[in-house]
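Running this now, will post back.
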Amino acid sequence: MANRIPPTSDPGFGIYVHWPFCLSKCPYCDFNSHVRAEPVDEKRFIAAFKAELAHRAGLTKGRKVRSVFFGGGTPSLMKAESVAAILDAIDGFWAVEPDVEVTLEANPSSVEAGRFRDYRTAGVNRVSIGVQALNDVDLKQLGRLHTAAEARAAVDVAAKTFARYSFDLIYGRQQQSVAAWRSELQTALTWAGEHLSLYQLTVEPDTIFERLNLAGKLVLPNADQSRAFWDATQEIMNAAGLPAYEISNHARAGAESRHNLIYWRYGEYVGVGPGAHGRIMVPKGRRAQATERHPEMWLTVVETDGHALIEDEMLSHEEQGDEFLLMGLRLAEGIEPARFEAVAGRSLDSARISSLIAEGMVEMTPQGRLRVSPEGFPLLDAVVADLAA
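Update: finished.
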């Protein structure tokens, strides 16, 4: 890991822009995404985004933007000029690092070569594509609107247009075998650049998949099968030179998502748009922020009040410590115990650490960082809960 983006005492400052609209709602999705039968008044929404950015800029004076992330929803449904307008606003409100990372999420069904070139001209320099599966049967089961051929075409366009690109796959799907996943992942690696996001399918609350699962119509792998999927994924990605730097994200050294590293290293970020979250530092401590989730309500509130924050609360030291562990231990690099103490106002329990080391769940690096071991990663939630107790 010597050539990876190194840990730093300053994780950086990022901006998340949430575009909440999709062409359809995927049955596994619990994100704040919405389908509209009528065209969205994009001009009006962009004006509201600018207003929220102005509001957050007033709360984060002196910050330097390391990354901007357009998420959703489906941001690739936005016009390129809308993306450019938001980036221009950010550039006007904050200082921006010369090598700022600007990522835009895209669905293959909304990808066109000309559209990607326009996004690049607007200032986007990295795309993340929601491929999810490489065969049409599984794509249909996942509720995706694109075909496998369209997914390959979208990745090809991204590779020709951007120096940095990534795409997502979901594994552990219904009736998927480990052997089939191995084959699919090997094929995906022939498409891939320097980054892949690989998520094991989970059933989230208030989704169509949850209702199907409760009705016995969606059967997912058991614990042993899930572990076999995990082990196969790590084996193949390590051999390909794209090891996991985070529990679900794999990259060659230096190609990690800089924006997501801000989250996982417990940096500062502001979120604008319906349902966006943020974490910012103020003189008295760290504040947790969240906006109105409903798009049209968010729009009305921003136009009335200049922002749509519905949560803006000071986090206690205990809450900060829990968040720091939850985020930082997702990373292969682990955490600095001294930084945990500074954030949480207490030290980690040395007896618990010793016990988890003895069980092979965590380890201390030569640099004094605490990290979850390869054996412990499939049990990450339990390890975090043990350390946080």
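DSSP finds 14 helices and 16 strands in the chain. More later if anyone needs it.
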